[in-house]
Design a protein that fits this description.
With 695 residues, this protein is an alpha+beta fold. The chain is built from 16 helices and 26 strands.
């Protein structure tokens, strides 16, 4: 041990004739080494430092060789020679001497080199002292510093692990934290095992490294002779400090882990509210035993892990309940729709990280309607909790009921808004309802604060359809506005409607328009099949993550099997407008004949005329007559006559001389099927005719 930074001694020329008394007071001996004669004189304290008596020392440094071990002597000689050679003024070094008792003792020397005017070294004067106490204190200090550093490292690992566990949401997250490079491996463990208590057994949920699994320990009973079972039974940690102790106490387990070369292990019960929920084991192959401080750290770490595990288990239980509720509120099955391919998807968000937060109010629905029509619904109730899901379920049901009753799309939306406003909740909802006639391709769209729909063409191009809208549901009634404009969109064969919630569109740092453009580009580049396209979009949403839910509905109108000469015609007939009534009759006769239904043209015209006349006679408003061909196994032609009266038609017995009362009798006799549908503030009387000759 060399001290090259020793300071020069300021001593008089006749030293050591008058040694500094401070040296003696500090138990330092002095020496004067004449390099010309080779003699070195020492005072009494120096003799004591070398453990030689005055009569044993003849003034020659070689005589001290008996006290300085050869290795120490060579190192000290090399140090002095180098100091003389490189022109140094002083040197210092720690070296050991062997006392007369045979023990080795640390000594320190410091010398000052005197040179003549030519620079030639002539004399070395210096001190020598017993450094045993000093180095013992230094060693103790280093040992304490090492212990403090180890303690800081272990405490840091605990803090890092605890901080990481704070973000763990699932049991697997907890396991990943413990296996992470910032986890327990920093404590030097060669292997980690962890199990959870379930119905009187311990189920292993983690072990590492690969290949360390012990057959037969995947599920063990608490009363079996395993260390994890023991700590669960006793609620006390178990520290195993040697292989011999491990083999003696756990003879069943020990033979299976000898390949891991385990030298010690720490098994900890994972306790929450005085109840064991599991156990954890840390196995080491490079240490024996544990200090009390290390044991305390392990116990604290076990407590933190237990709290995180319980929180994760609660979260997973709540998540299962929430997802079950969400799925129960969504339609269990989507009905098959003749003339269309449909795909629906739902992805739960991951908002907040709180229990029960992975659930929201997003929903979709598909509602079969009479006459080859279908209603498509997409909506989003405000919030991400079970209350939002419950409101969503109620709102979905009433929307379906209103649509199935035959109300117009605007009325469906207005009534749903009133329902939500009157519900005991502070939530609102956005919604888009599209009612599609798959026979004609006419789609009526109503929007309540929701994002626009997209339409994809068979060539892959995709466009955003911007339509006017009203306030979100629940707010329109509050602000006294129930106006929901109806927009018409033409859906040609092979075209696809895409309805979605904003979770698929909105991204941090981008506005809605950018998100819609990005979604349109993704849809355009996606597969043609609606199910494959829906999977692609949900996969993208899943990869992107995000806190919001995603509901998605795709409806593709199938291409027609063959070109059609007819489709759909409609005419408005006002009260007292004889010309409009005549035109309606001519339209019906001409259309039926042009479509190939000549054999039933008279019957269809007669029934339609009767229905239009009844609507004009028994209501105060206009009548709307619609004629269309229905796609199906049998060729049918349908006549709809709508009016503004909610009074339903009824049969009356006509007298012998009566001129009225035979209208519904004619309808019943001449049509194949007929009926009445409520349409909000009015109704629709419809009838269908089988016309096999239709193309």
């Amino acid at each position: 041990m060399v001290d090259r930074g020793a300071s020069a001694l300021s001593l008089p020329d006749d030293w050591p004739a008058h040694p500094d008394p401070i040296l003696a007071l500090n138990r330092m001996g002095s020496f004067d080494w004449d390099l010309d004669t080779g003699l070195m004189s020492m005072d009494a304290q120096a003799h004591e430092a070398f453990d030689v008596r005055p009569d044993e020392y003849d003034g020659r440094p070689e005589t001290l060789a008996a006290r300085v071990p050869p290795g120490e002597a060579r190192r000290l000689d090399a140090l002095v020679a180098q100091a003389i050679k490189d022109g140094s003024e002083n040197y210092g070094a720690y070296f050991r001497i062997r006392c007369r008792t045979g023990e080795l003792r640390w000594t320190h020397t410091q010398g000052y080199i005197r040179r003549d005017h030519t620079g030639r070294p002539r004399r070395i004067i210096g001190i020598v002292r017993d450094a045993t106490s000093e180095l013992d204190e230094f060693a103790a200090h280093r040992q304490q510093a090492s212990l403090d550093e180890a303690r800081r490292e272990q405490t840091n690992v605990v803090q890092l692990t605890t901080a990481a566990l704070a973000h763990a949401r699932t049991v697997q997250d907890v396991i990943d934290v413990l296996k992470d490079t910032h986890g327990l491996v920093h404590l030097g463990a060669a292997s980690l095992v962890m199990g959870l208590v379930e119905a009187g057994r311990i189920r292993l949920i983690a072990e590492g490294p690969v290949g360390s699994f012990v057959p037969g320990t995947r599920v063990t009973r608490i009363d079996e002779p395993y260390p994890m079972s023991e700590v669960v039974r006793t609620l006390s940690p178990r520290f195993i400090e040697s292989p011999e102790e491990f083999a003696a106490h756990y003879p069943i387990l020990w033979p299976h882990i000898t390949g891991l070369h385990i030298t010690s292990a720490a098994y900890l019960p994972l306790i929450v509210q005085a109840r064991p929920i599991g156990a954890m084991g840390l196995l080491y192959n490079d240490r024996r035993g544990f200090t009390q401080e290390e044991r305390n750290i392990f116990v604290a770490l076990g407590s933190s892990i237990a709290q995180s595990l319980q929180r994760a288990m609660f979260y997973e239980e709540e998540k299962d309940i929430a997802q079950g509720l969400q799925q129960a509120m969504l339609p269990r099955t989507i009905p098959s729709v003749p003339g269309a391919d449909v795909a629906v998807r739902y992805r739960a968000g991951s908002a907040g990280g709180l229990l029960g937060r992975d659930i929201g109010g997003d929903w979709y629905d598909l509602i079969p309607l009479p006459g080859g029509r279908v209603g498509a619904v997409i909506g989003d109730v405000q919030g991400h909790d079970t209350h939002a899901a419950a409101v969503m379920g109620q709102l979905r049901i009433v929307l379906r009921a209103y649509a199935a009753e035959g109300h117009t799309p605007a009325t469906v939306m207005a009534r749903a808004s009133v329902f939500l406003h009157e519900l005991d909740t502070d939530r609102f909802a956005t919604c888009l309802y599209a009612e599609a006639d798959l026979g004609t391709g006419v789609v009526q769209v109503v929007r309540a604060g929701h994002i626009d729909l997209l339409v994809r063409a068979p060539d892959g191009s995709c466009r955003r359809v911007t339509v006017p809208g009203g306030l979100p549901l629940g707010l329109s009634a509050e602000f006294g506005s129930l106006e929901y404009p109806v927009s018409t969109v033409e859906l040609d064969p092979g075209h696809t409607l895409l309805l979605t919630t904003d979770g698929l569109v909105e991204q941090p740092g981008t506005d809605l328009d950018d998100g819609m453009r990005a979604l349109a580009a993704t849809v355009a580049a996606g597969p043609d099949d609606v199910r494959a396209l829906a999977d692609r979009l949900i996969d993208i949403a899943e990869a992107r993550g995000g806190d919001d839910d995603v509901a998605l509905l795709l409806l593709r109108r199938r291409p027609l099997d063959a070109p059609r000469t007819g489709g759909r015609l409609q005419q408005h007939v006002a009260p007292g407008d004889a010309e409009a009534l005549t035109q309606a009759r001519h339209m019906i006769r001409a259309a039926v004949r042009s479509w190939g239904g000549r054999e039933r043209a008279d019957e269809i015209e007669l029934v339609a005329d009767e229905l239009i006349t009844n609507a004009l006679m028994h209501t105060e408003g206009a009548a709307i007559v619609t004629l269309r061909v229905l796609n199906g196994a049998d060729r049918r032609l349908r006549v709809d006559v709508e009016d503004s009266s909610s009074a339903l038609p009824r049969r009356r017995e006509a007298g012998v001389q009566g001129v009225s009362g035979r209208g519904l009798l004619l309808v019943d006799l001449l049509t194949d099927v007929w009926g009445v549908e409520a349409r909000g503030g009015g109704k629709c009387v419809w009838c269908e005719f089988v016309v096999p000759s239709l193309p």
